[in-house]
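Hey L., structure's done. Input below.
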Amino acid sequence: MVEFAALTYGLLASVILSAAQRNRQRGHPHPPLLLYVGYLLCGLSAGVALALAYVALTLVGGI
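Output:
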């Protein structure tokens, strides 16, 4: 299940970043859906990073 989530996340991030780069090179504004999914991925990445850091600290006994 984790492999499927990682593959889906990686594919979605790749599509969003390539679309954003293409729009920037062409000078076009980003569509609202592209911005929404980009911010969603950014928040998801930050949340997972914080959760993993918390788990790592609690397993070591730092907190």
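DSSP finds two helices and no strands in the chain. The radius of gyration is 16 Å.

-- N.
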